[in-house]
Design brief:
Elements lengths: L1 E2 L1 E3 L2 E3 L6 E5 L6 E6 L3 H18 L4 H17 L1 H12 L3 H22 L5 E3 L7 E8 L2 E5 L7 H13 L2 E5 L5 H14 L6 E3 L4 H10 L3 E7 L2 H13 L3 E5 L4 E5 L5 H12 L10 E7 L3 H12 L20 H16 L3 E4 L14 E4 L16 E7 L2 H8 L4 E2 L1 E5 L3 H10 L4 E4 L14 E2 L2 E2 L4 H6 L2 E8 L4
Parallel strand pairs: 1-5, 8-9, 8-11, 9-10, 11-12, 13-14, 13-19, 14-17, 16-17, 19-20
Antiparallel strand pairs: 2-3, 4-5, 6-7, 7-23, 12-22, 15-16, 18-21
Helix pairs in contact: 1-7, 2-4, 2-5, 2-6, 3-4, 3-6, 4-5, 9-10
This protein binds nicotinamide-adenine-dinucleotide (NAD).
């Protein structure tokens, strides 16, 4: 398969020097190639997004809404194709990939609905004959960057919100999941979005980011990925006076109190932990378990973890596929080894699975202290850390101990404690007795090093709009 770029409504080959490969994580074999974008390609993408903004910003909210709804419909028609592409490029089991396509289409639908409700505000004037209001205006050309771990949801969320607000976008999806991004571009093309409103470029991430973040024609950056890269792009955006939203890494704590149904909670946590092989920014990772039930909870968690079926993600029985690439496999293996050397007890898994592809066993580690690297570094893989805590104060302190604050979870039947966990854990999302951290209609964003700004919900759309104050009087 030869992948293209998507610039000004054309699926065209890149004109950069390098030809690069896309690899299947389940086999380690090449499944596609693409010619990298050159500086000229990027300049063209920025140029036509800028041109398209001139008319897109004037397109009525009702019309924008209709077009976005059509994209959702087109994506649903391609559900099978898109989900198979996600599974081929990312290694997520097919049923999970189908769910991802459903949610990605919903992102467009939700943005279509909300596009018509982006209201400004009329401000009471101090004198008669004066009208003053805060009106919302789209930022302009947005530069988007998305990772590989949610290859349909993340691009869909950024594109749909940008378009709903009246912005146009140049998106650089992950080079590891190009085929998924291009299928979304095809749905956009079939829906009849005007040329240049959405562009996708692939190539050398750092140089593309540099060109996009320094262009005077780009007004906003929206990035999803690791904290280190996010900080670099955020600094660049600030230097060039561009608005930035940054959705970065996490290391989610999960407080488990001694009054819960241990088996039920363990089963639900296992299902969420090993979803997408743990390669989810909101993946529950640090289980802070009340001491009285520590052994019992670990036992149930391990029992459920050992039943997770790890296999070729195209198999209908598969519950967990491979990690995305050799780099992730090495990182996970290194963190697990380091933890064991630092005194952690390996309760389950702990090694790669023999054979082709990047498969790793669902892994559970029990920790008596926090000296291992994995206690500080986001594992972004199928590793659960079991940590005993005695008091609610200790659980909250541990939950807040890291510089991350993206998602957090707490399980208890005690209302007072539930209230404390929800209010005192420093995290953009806190789920109490529940594990769904993000939906199209709810705001999602990080505290501390996990990011800036929101995606999703009205708050997420609002990020793509700036406020202008207009005052009208009667002097002439
Ligand atoms: P990454 O930071 O390596 O890549 C993300 C995007 O940035 C990709 O498009 C990539 O090509 C690009 N990129 C990489 N290096 C770059 C550079 N030097 N300059 C500019 N762009 C560059 O992240 P990843 O490995 O794809 O994803 C894993 C990380 O993303 C994890 O930390 C995870 O928690 C985080 N993540 C966060 C969210 C969220 O919403 N907060 C969602 C998914 C993933």
């Amino acid at each position: 398969m030869k992948y293209s770029q998507y610039i000004d409504g054309e699926f065209c080959g890149g004109t950069g020097e390098e030809e690069l490969a896309v690899v299947s994580p389940a086999t380690g074999q090449e499944i596609g190639r693409y010619q990298a974008a050159s500086q000229n390609d990027i300049a063209q993408a920025i140029d036509c997004a800028h041109r398209a903004f001139g008319s897109w910003r004037k397109t009525s909210a009702t019309q924008r809404s209709e077009l976005l709804r059509k994209v959702a419909n087109e994506m649903r028609l391609d559900r099978d194709l898109l989900s198979r592409q996600i599974t081929a490029e990312l290694g997520k089991p097919l049923y999970e990939a189908q769910k991802e396509v459903d949610v990605a289409a919903e992102m467009f639908e939700w943005a279509a609905e909300e596009a018509r409700r982006l209201y400004g505000r009329l401000i009471p004037a101090r004198a008669p004959g004066i009208q003053q209001f805060a009106q919302l205006e789209p930022y302009g050309v947005v530069a988007g960057f998305s990772g590989w771990n949610a290859p349909a949801i993340t691009p869909s969320r950024k594109i749909s919100a940008a378009l709903a607000a009246g912005c146009t976008i140049v998106l650089k999806p992950s080079e590891e999941t190009i085929g998924v991004a291009l299928l979304i571009a095809q749905a956009i093309e079939r829906a009849g979005l005007p040329r240049g409103t959405v562009n996708m470029v692939f190539g050398d991430p750092a140089s593309i980011a540099d060109q996009l973040c320094t262009s005077p024609m780009v007004s906003m950056i929206t990035f999803t990925g690791g904290t280190d890269v996010g900080k670099q792009l955020g600094a660049k955006a600030a230097l060039h006076m561009k608005k930035a939203t940054l959705e970065l890494g996490g290391h989610a704590p999960v407080v488990i109190w001694n009054d819960v149904d241990i088996d039920k909670v363990a089963a639900a946590c296992v299902a969420t932990k090993y979803r997408n092989a743990g390669q989810v920014c909101t993946s529950p990772t640090r289980f802070l378990i009340q001491k009285d039930i520590f052994d019992a909870f670990c036992e149930r968690f391990v029992t459920h973890a050992q039943t997770v079926r790890v296999m070729d993600p195209l198999e209908s029985q598969a519950q967990m596929g491979p990690l995305k690439n050799q780099r992730r496999l090495n990182a996970i293996d290194g963190l697990v080894r380091n933890a064991v050397e630092s005194g952690a007890t390996l309760l389950a898994g702990g090694s790669a699975i023999e054979g082709p592809g990047y498969f790793y066993k669902p892994t559970v580690l029990a920790l008596q202290d926090q000296t291992a690297d994995v206690c500080r570094i986001e594992p972004f893989g199928p590793v659960a850390l079991m940590i005993p805590v005695e008091t609610a104060d200790e659980a909250i302190a541990e939950a807040n101990a890291l510089p991350f604050g993206l998602a957090a979870y707490a399980f208890t039947n005690n209302m007072k404690l539930a209230y404390r966990f929800a209010n005192e854990i420093q995290s953009g999302v806190v789920c109490v007795n529940e594990l769904q951290a993000s939906l199209p209609e709810t705001p999602f964003g990080g505290y501390k090093d996990s990011g800036l700004g929101s995606e999703g919900g009205v708050e997420g759309l609002r990020e793509f709009l700036r406020v202008k104050c207009v005052r009208q009087g009667g002097l002439v």
